[in-house]
Request: fold
Amino acid sequence: MSGTTGATYRERIDAVRTGLEACGAAVAVFGLSSNLRYLAGFTDEPGERLFLLIVPISGEPTMVVPALYLDQVQAHQPSGAIRSWADGEDPTDILRDIAAGLGRCTGRVLVDDTLWAGHLLAVQDALADRTFGLASDVMNPLRMCKASDEIAAMRRAGEIADLALEDALAEPIAGCTEIQLAGRLEAAMLDHGAAGIAFETLVASGPNSSLPHYRAGKRRIEDGDVVILDYGCRVDGYCSDISRTVACGEPPNEADRVHDAVRRAQWAARERVGIGVRAEEVDAAAREVLTTAGYGEQFVHRTGHGIGLDVHESPYIVGGNGEMLQEGMAFSIEPGAYLPGAFGVRIEDVVVVGAGGAVPMTEAPQDMRRVA
Amino acid sequence: MSGTTGATYRERIDAVRTGLEACGAAVAVFGLSSNLRYLAGFTDEPGERLFLLIVPISGEPTMVVPALYLDQVQAHQPSGAIRSWADGEDPTDILRDIAAGLGRCTGRVLVDDTLWAGHLLAVQDALADRTFGLASDVMNPLRMCKASDEIAAMRRAGEIADLALEDALAEPIAGCTEIQLAGRLEAAMLDHGAAGIAFETLVASGPNSSLPHYRAGKRRIEDGDVVILDYGCRVDGYCSDISRTVACGEPPNEADRVHDAVRRAQWAARERVGIGVRAEEVDAAAREVLTTAGYGEQFVHRTGHGIGLDVHESPYIVGGNGEMLQEGMAFSIEPGAYLPGAFGVRIEDVVVVGAGGAVPMTEAPQDMRRVA
Reply:
């Protein structure tokens, strides 16, 4: 957060130590990830250069930092030591040195879930006598319930996504490639003040819309196409994520029926949200509507995923997840139905759990609007 | 590659097996990565869902695939078995089952360098009696020297980057935020036929240009700013990567002197490129020019990185890398000089090693042009 202070980061590091103790672990190791941003106010895309934040259960944290990041890291005044290494040097020497200093912190090492194998094997080599687990055990409980400043950033990211939809659909989409329309959405979000896009924009048109994980390709949008738009941006590191399904001209007859069922499923799930409700109950609420409508088999994915500094994080809104919803949890509700080879429909909004139920972060109209 | 056939993928899988044998390893494990694309024609951003390609030294490969990817994976007709799992199921059951079947392939397991720790720990758990190494030992030699179709894709990605520069600078940049200008570059690349952007575009203006790894922020570009643009796109999975330094109006006096030194350094490195030359010699050629010009201390990073399906891959053009250049190797040459708090300059082109020396993939003018 732009307003987050050094004191907040120190509190969060202390919370990691408390979490380590509760897990019976001794050390947490983070790479360039959302956890690093949460704990130190800084991150970047992960890369081949070794960049680590090592938090022992007692004593100061240490950062292993490639020299060319040094200015940026120091600007964030992280607590603890910084050990930098230059291109051409071998950073595993530093790692072994730090490992030797961790001797008193005996016990398990928890590593960032997204840490690259190349870096994890180096850490395992330096701490060869340890067992390893995942830092999400400590980080998920810390990050899952959002504070008011985090929710404010997510709401702003949602507003920008809402605005970008209007911009992108203000001009005709027929004849555009999916990728060009994705570019329009992304440029509009950046223009409205987003710090970046949250993930590569998905534009799936015509039969491509029946592939739930299709991204965007060179297919030109045609009259009669159903088009799924799934995109989001970042504000202060926090993500938005919205899906709308629109039609270029007049879609196939069944499309309106499917769209109506998906929309009712989404609202059934939203209305199920509340403090103390289990995540799987929200999934079941959406699934029940689509099953009754005859599209249960076509709803091939979970209902949603948690969101925050990561586009996908805990809690997952999926069958089998008995986790109870708590105030401040943020997640997507995105039922869909996919008719192979024909078309698909998905409607997605991120909601935050409030005392009165689900509070949406995006509010763009959900109807399957007809676009030129 | 859009024109790559199933036969090519089978040959590449065979080459992995040969590589495993040469390394004394028994199994290679890949996640959603450029290696997966190279071996199976398909990839996506890595995620929390377990997605693996497991290649044993003998017997058929197996893919572990989340159900919602199944259609897309099958469309690529990968050789070997596909084991899919649905949201709500535990994929580690499949993993243990596969591990049991690998009993005859005794020996080391090589894993994708970018495989997430969350997935690697699951693999290590299923194959608890094995030692682990990095798949780059096998994949780098395969991927480092590009074939003509790969070079054609990189050249096209470079042409699109060249065109996007003209588009983005055709309108005034004064008053734009860095992020807005980044959005302009990205939309222009998608509009010119790129399949996607290669990495988050870097626009660093004024004092921000002195931070070599700064991305893009809300700073508005002002008259007198030096502005570094560093961006690229993808064509058929292959990346371009170009940096140009421009000025908004008239830059500080020293900027032209620094720019001239960086440009001479870049050309010294380009001219050093040839078959049999060591990577570190190319680095040294650039470094020597900047040192003589008095900016050696301000050139804080390596001269370049290999590029292909990944933005950063082997070979690295860095001091200490005695690797000999071979025909078809592709890498960036991007010397820079950064004057803390004032400004920075970087000039970058990707080149491919040809019989006659360096063949550039981008050709946009290098001069520090003055833009309104």
